[in-house]
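Quick illustration, no need to memorize.
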Amino acid sequence: MQFSKGVEYALHSLLQMLNAPAGKSVGIKELAVFQGISETYLSKIFTKLRKTGIVKAAPGVNGGYELAVAPEKITFWDVIEAVEGSSDMFQCIEIRQNTATLDKENLPDSYTKCPCLIKTVMLDAEEQMRKHLRSKTIGWLRDEVRRKIPAEQAEAAKEWFRSKKR
């Protein structure tokens, strides 16, 4: 299983948006330059984040983006779903019904009415992961990062965003 780099870009960018002064929008170009990532790709990610209500476009000539909700309300799972979509990771195609020893025209109930045990286990595992990712928010991430990086580095990031004209 692998999430796209878009998930990482989105999570980091949402975190970096918290370095901007209150009430100030942040441009895609600023976020891309600050993080050394593709502006074009990040723009596509932000379109998805906007469509799902995580960020909102700021009006005006300079535009940019702002969080649409408090960082404590944006879960990791919200971001993953916005970027990757909401379909299950495991897609059961019921290959058990293709077993060579079965009459495909007269499958027993255990192959048609009972859920596939592999599917059951995989979907349960996905739900456990979703539950964990729903318990982590951008606000939680901000607080954890503040505890782990040097204060000078945190202040330098805030100053970098303060110095950008919007």
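The first strand starts at residue 55 and ends at 57.
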